[in-house]
Write a structure and sequence with these properties.
Chain lengths: ~450, ~425
């Protein structure tokens, strides 16, 4: 960013032009000789006699810098400004950063025991998620990929609801229809997660445009759209960036660059300077942040959010982190990366430890409180876990609802009737009996 | 490379418009509000003379199933309330434009967008809307179909009304993921907490005489398995306005496919008030007792011609259309029940089955290829329900299972002779 500003300082010599930063000094000298007046009909590009290619948005072939506030031991780095943060706010951030792995560990293990079908942890990305969530407003519309449960925790979404979703119990607001970790809540402004990657990106532009068109929410709320660096390879990323910049829509795009898309390392995902380098191509204000530094993520999110509201258009934030956990419970990441690499990252650059050291340096946290917190969180998670574990599934008839609003089409009515006949005919078959027993009303709502 | 690709892609997209302009010399009528609609034109001259066009005010106001938005609930059937209502002669693109104008005027949360819609659209369906309602409500998008669909889904998920256009049905496929995996499943997967009921995707569809591979396709069958979406295809200006307004207001995402060859060629009197026609309701265009012909969109008019040829074949066809078959079965004098399906998903099985139970014979006609087409689905359901009533196998007259080859259209798609042949074969089985 600094380099871009320096180059811009040369610009005033050329009236009414904003040449991109990639022009080298030779190009600028020709501009001064008056070539700049010959503009192309559809561009403000200055004319240059220099046959010069470029492949960097910083102008000097360096990579885009990563914004950081705290060093590895929680001390502000030289020149960094600590964002405005109160003791209570910081402690809440820390608590949620600790709750996330507590919850992850219990649910991960429960999948290993076959109690839930699937799970995805956020290990290593606690600061990226909680830090950004803390920089948003509660009413900002969140559109997530799947590794952002920390945002729900930040918004005090009940653990009971999280567990109900993972278990697909009758208390799940989505009626047990989606795989675990596909959370959603209208009240918490968290759009229901879906598995297809990146589809939420152009949707976020539409959500943000709707916010602008809603008088009570215009200039107050933004859409916050999360996705991984792998998802950014989808065409929907391109579409979403384009739409939110050309059709002014206040979306904060938050790319979690954690180095891997399942087994594919980021180096096989793109050849350029990460995701951030693409932002300027779309005319989008962009920043790259150290995702293991909760304060940097918080400060960047707050500033990005302000820009969204002020400019009314998209802002891109690339949050650099590392996926410490496996991709999901269906993945063994040591098949494609060394265990030692992961262990090293956990030890050297732990986002929770870094933030804890900061809290301690402020006198806002101590070892005793740490012990108390860990015990309390574990109890809370276990309590919610136990409650969901024994809960029945929703009524079987919910299989047929919410497909269409209004009257159920004849084909669905007929298929529900077919199931009724089938169940009444075969209800004594062990395979059906056992399965029916898991549902609220034991299938009676369909059978009668 | 990329420049060439872009140029190639953009050029063909304009072709149908330019060529249609050539067939229509009254270009002044492109400017709305038009005193006189443009003359009928297009690749099927029979459309203009169709008996299904409602050419008088009285006929237009009594269109079956018509519901006026301002009619008091519980009042007498609106068909009786024709007094004081006006109609105007419109072609199909004007009726569609009129529907969107009504939608924008009655719903502050409605927006209309897509590629090139701000200047009026390549088929003129959004003429003057940007000027009338402002660029924040009627606007261009970048050229990205998956983006348009995704953007529309996002808007609709916030409770807004999104009327998005895909420039051609042929280009809806980049948006297939957004429509099938996202829009269709939005309500179900959130347990009804989120929905995109305010979403309507409009797209021109079907052949236009010279559209080749990518300006001719019928795409409705690809969405038949997308549980949660509705698919609607109108046949005329009144149908287009009433069904489009119904689609926009339906609490489900709807794909509204407009037979592009009818944009200018189909002209009738259209009520100027705000009205809807029912979704998932087929319309019996001509009642009959010997054979049911089921179709939708452009082929409605080929079927009409075929039925006419059946009763009075010209000398060149007469040898192939016997007066009677066997002892009693009348061929030329056969009574044909013609049904316009109108809503493809969820379709009106009741009307279709009732008709086939009466006639015992069914011919299904569509432009889309036979394999995987709508006809297979309908045929399967009909044979299941009407097995003992069927007097002949269900016949499908469809496009060949080939891409839409530019020079082969006449022999690839159902025309009046193929339909005639199918009706004769079915009657003489």
């Amino acid at each position: 960013m600094a380099v871009v500003c320096k180059l811009r300082s040369i610009i005033p010599e050329v009236p009414n032009l904003s040449p991109p930063s990639m022009f080298r000094p030779t190009a600028f000298s020709t501009l001064r000789r008056g070539f700049a007046t010959q503009l192309l009909p559809t561009s403000k590009s200055p004319i240059s006699p220099s046959l010069s290619f470029f492949n960097s948005v910083t102008g000097d072939d360096t990579q885009i810098p990563t914004y950081r506030v705290l060093d590895g031991v929680g001390k502000p780095i030289e020149g960094a400004e600590i964002p405005e943060i109160t003791r209570d706010f910081a402690r809440k951030m820390y608590e949620k950063m600790c709750l996330l792995p507590q919850m992850d560990t219990i649910l991960y293990n429960s999948q290993r025991q076959g109690k839930i079908s699937f799970y995805m942890t956020s290990h290593g990305e606690e600061a990226a998620i909680v830090g950004s969530a803390a920089g948003l407003d509660f009413e900002d519309e969140a559109l997530a990929q799947y590794r952002e449960a920390g945002l729900l925790l930040w918004r005090d979404y009940p653990l009971d609801s999280i567990m109900a979703q993972c278990f697909g119990s009758h208390e799940d607001s989505a009626k047990g229809r989606q795989m675990p970790v596909h959370y959603g809540s209208k009240e918490y402004h968290f759009h229901t997660i879906s598995s297809p990657l990146a589809t939420q990106i152009p949707q976020a532009a539409g959500v943000a445009f709707a916010l602008r068109r809603t008088p009570s929410r215009r200039d107050k709320s933004i859409a916050a759209c999360y996705f991984g660096e792998g998802a950014a390879s989808e065409g929907d990323f391109h579409a979403g960036m384009l739409l939110a910049s050309t059709i002014p829509s206040p979306v904060l795009f938050i790319a979690r660059n954690n180095g891997f898309a399942i087994s594919t390392p980021a180096a096989e995902q793109y050849h350029g300077d990460g995701i951030a380098s693409r932002g300027p191509g779309y005319g989008v204000d962009t920043i790259r942040v150290d995702g293991n530094d909760a304060l940097a993520v918080l400060a960047a999110t707050r500033e990005a959010r302000k820009r969204c509201l002020k400019g009314g258009r998209a802002v891109l934030m690339e949050v650099m982190t590392y996926r410490v956990g496996h991709h999901s419970t269906s993945d063994d990441s040591f098949a494609y990366r060394a265990r030692s690499e992961v262990e090293d990252r956990k030890r050297i650059d732990n986002p929770i430890a870094r933030f804890r050291l900061f809290l301690e340096s402020q006198g806002w946290w101590n070892g005793e409180e740490e012990e108390e917190l860990k015990t309390r969180l574990k109890t809370e998670v276990m309590k919610a876990f136990k409650k969901a574990e024994s809960a029945p599934r929703p009524p079987l008839g919910e299989m047929f609802t919410d497909i269409y609003a209004g009257e159920m089409p004849w084909n669905l009515k007929e298929q529900k009737e077919e199931l009724k006949q089938l169940l009444n005919k075969y209800k004594d078959y062990d395979g059906y009996k056992k399965e029916l027993a898991k549902f609220t009303k034991k299938g009676e709502d369909v059978m009668q | 490379m990329s420049l060439t690709t872009t140029t190639l892609r953009r050029l063909p997209r304009r072709l149908p418009l330019l060529s249609q302009r050539r067939t229509n010399t009254t270009a002044a009528a492109d400017n709305l509000p038009a005193a006189e609609p443009p003359q009928a034109g297009g690749s099927i001259p029979t459309v203009a003379k169709s008996a299904f066009m409602r050419n008088t005010r009285e006929q237009a106001l009594r269109a079956p199933g018509i519901t006026f938005a301002d009619a008091a609930p519980g009042s007498a059937p609106s068909g009786n309330l024709v007094g004081g209502r006006e109609t105007r002669k419109m072609n199909m693109y004007q009726a569609i434009r009129d529907a969107m104008s009504v939608c924008l005027a009655t719903d502050d949360n409605a927006v209309v967008f897509g590629e090139d819609v701000a200047f009026g659209g390549v088929f003129r369906c959004t003429m003057g809307l940007a000027e009338e309602f402002g660029r924040e409500r009627v606007f261009n998008t970048p050229l990205t179909e998956q983006g348009i669909a995704g953007f529309a889904i996002g808007l609709a998920s916030m409770g807004h009304t999104a009327v998005a256009e895909m420039q051609f049905g042929d280009y809806i496929f980049p948006a297939f993921d957004q429509l099938v995996n996202e829009a269709a499943k939005f309500r179900y997967r959130s347990g009804g907490k989120f929905d995109v009921g305010g979403l309507t995707i409009r797209a021109p569809c079907m052949a236009v005489g010279h559209g080749g591979l990518y300006h001719s396709q019928s795409v409705e069958h690809f969405f038949m398995g997308a549980h949660g979406l509705k698919v609607v295809i109108p046949r005329s200006p009144i149908q287009a306005k009433g069904l489009l307004l119904a689609a926009i207001r339906d609490p489900n995402p709807v794909i509204f496919l407009e037979p592009k060859t009818l944009y200018r060629s189909a002209v009738e009197q259209v009520p100027i008030d705000d009205f809807t026609l029912p979704l998932s309701k087929a319309e019996i265009l001509t009642p009959g007792s010997d054979v049911t012909v089921l179709t939708y969109g452009t082929p409605v008019y080929h079927c009409e011609s075929a039925i006419h040829l059946l009763s009075s074949p010209p000398p060149s066809l007469a040898p192939h259309v016997p007066q009677v078959q066997g002892a009693q079965q009348k061929i030329r004098g056969a009574s044909v029940e013609l049904i316009d399906l109108r809503t493809i998903v969820p379709w009106d099985i009741e009307t279709v089955v009732q008709s086939v139970e009466k006639t015992g014979r069914l011919v299904i006609v569509h432009e889309a290829g036979r394999q995987g087409g709508i006809g297979g689905e309908i045929a399967a359901e009909v044979q299941k329900r009407c097995f003992l009533k069927l007097k002949a196998p269900v016949k499908r007259v469809a496009g060949t299972d080939a891409p839409n080859g530019l020079q082969y259209e006449k022999f690839q798609l159902p025309d009046q002779v193929r339909i005639l042949d199918a009706i004769v074969e079915t009657l003489s089985y």
